[in-house]
Amino acid sequence: MRLPARRIATSALCATLLLGVTGPAAVAADSASAPEHTHAASRAPVPDADELLGQVESLGDLGGVLVPVADLLTAVLKADDGQLPHSQAAKLSTSVQDAIDHATATATAPAVTGAAPQSSPLPQASTLPAPVENDAELPEDLAAEALTALEKSTEELLKAVTSGDAAQVTPAVNGVVAGVVNAVAATLVGSRLPAPDLAGLPSLPKAP
Q1: What is the three-class DSSP state of 63?
Q2: Residue 64 and residue 106: Cα distance in Å, rounded?
Q3: Helices and strands in the chain: count of H runs, count of E runs
Q4: Measuring CA to CA, which residue among 116, 108, 119 is closest to residue 48?
Q5: Mutual angle of helices 142-160 and 49-78, in 10-degree steps
Q6: How confident is the model at residue 200 (pLDDT cuts 50, 70, 90)?
Q7: Digit-coded pLDDT (tens) for 42-72
């Protein structure tokens, strides 16, 4: 028995529409599951992640200190006779103090202990030399001590820039600059950062 041509055409149209709806949906479902598999496969930890993260955090905290200190020094050196209004000095001082407090808290935080370190598949770069032959001779809180000294030097600067005596400003500025250099050096050495390898840089001095 022959089916009417109209019924055959209608059935074919329905089948086509059904495939048009379910086909892309199935493909979309497969595509959606692909990133999940990729994401799951990418959850493996990066080799030496903990050590590298500590170095990055040390640099970040150091940068957080340098910016407000530089803002303070810039404001002082651009002011008439190096004197600042008390309100401006207080605002700049708060920014510096907050940054130093944060960096100090990080520097004095106990190291996270975990499983025994495994050999890394990555090539090991040389690290910045310590000012002594044996790293064990370094003070444990070297960076924290440098930040404390920097804090004291900024306090002296704030007194000078609100004293009305321009002669006090230059020595106080020099003290802050020296404190910043000490904080940078203590952070670089204490964080075991890789030694610089830029062509043209002079060789680093060795401990006597």
Answers
A1: helix
A2: 12
A3: 5, 0
A4: 119
A5: 10
A6: confident
A7: 566 777 777 777 778 777 878 899 999 999 9
